[in-house]
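Hi R.,

Here's the chain you asked about this morning:
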Amino acid sequence: MKKSRAFYINELCNEEKLKKLEDLHEEYRYYTQLGIDTMLERHVLTFDWMNYADTQAFFPRPKADNGKILNSNFAELARRHAIDTVSAWASAIYQRKLKSHIYKLFKSDQISEKTKIQLCTIGKYLVIEPSNTVTQEALDLYWSLLLDEKLCGKPPQVSKRFPMRLNASTAKLQMATSAKATDIWLSIATLELRKRIDIPLKSNPYIKDVSEVTGGLLLCKDKKGRYKIQAVERKEYQIPEISGTKEIGIDVGLNVIAAMSDGRLYGEDFKPKFDCLRNNILSIRANRQRQNLREDSPRLMALEFKLSEMMKTVMGEISNDIIKQYPDTVFVLEDLNLNGSRGQKRFVYRALYRILCQKVVVKTRNPAYTSQTCPDCGYVSHKNRKGTKFVCRCCGAARHADVVGAINLLRRSEDKEINSVEHYKQIETILKARFRHRRCVTRASDCTDVFPDTSELPSLSQGLTTRVLS
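And the predicted structure, written out as tokens:
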């Protein structure tokens, strides 16, 4: 696993260099959008950009503006970027919207089964030409659905924050030899022929030498409008091997960030802050939508940036604290489906899972009924849990509901019977069968205590006779 590092432009950079960089970025975005529009106009979803001659002939050439033009290296990067953007957009639209819509058309008898198969083939494999399995009529029908803005939304649009790809021929990082302002500089080509500019960058505490990062760079803007250069470290980060077999369960709760199977809770005061800021953002966005205003505004972007930074800070602190408190431990998390999740749980689970996977060994288990199953007697019922309180309706055991979920996750770590099934109904059947078996064993042991000699135990017929006579 490799990590990405960011370098921001130093405040000492003069305005003339920034203006040239802005012009270069604007021309790159314009040519990339031109490539996207060309692909959609000619009904092409993917392209073999490894063939330089074909891509150069397919896409229009960049036009010179006042003697300024994208050089061939930047133009090739922009063409590849356009191809990747269209391909990714088409694949995502098919999975999220078109696939279900095609099945609806088939169920309503608007298309035949053969046409349905052809449309799914086009969307899955990004077919662009007719063949033995796909006809031209199916291609035309698929494109009419794909370009329907009411169904699929607008095609890809290049915004001001669209990143610009850089390679070794267009830009490179250099270490300063005599400059005192900063240690790292970016040497990048411009729109002027055979002219480069050197831009001072802020140092990154994790990078001491530019030889520690790869040659491929990415120039983009953050939400505050600041330019930054992203690079990938050459160093490979390996997850440390665990010598012992110590494990602990973690449950991401609705009101806490993490609940451990030993009873510890992390982030109990985070939810009110998160909900307050997120509700403010949703309210502003809904108000702008009612007034038919554009989607984003400086205030809204500032609030979203504040929310994301708060998430990063809190999750980083808590994950580091958890790793420090439980050294040489395997963490058992829930394999959560986030389709129906709302609020902080959706964001927290993704962040916590991603951070822990980068630093420690993580197991994931099916979380079905973990917060509804009593860890003492095994009784399963949705009535056991009410909010963050868990009170078993069979044995009366009371605990924090998220801690109960973490305990049951830990127990499922080596549970081969439950891990072998996926559907939650099958898991419910297994848990209820275990509870009934445990009750029978408990009752039999109680009877053995009363009647030490098994011959003195009343038979089933004797018990029934006694009840009838009484």
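Residues 72-107 form the longest helix (36 residues).

Let me know if you need anything else.
M.
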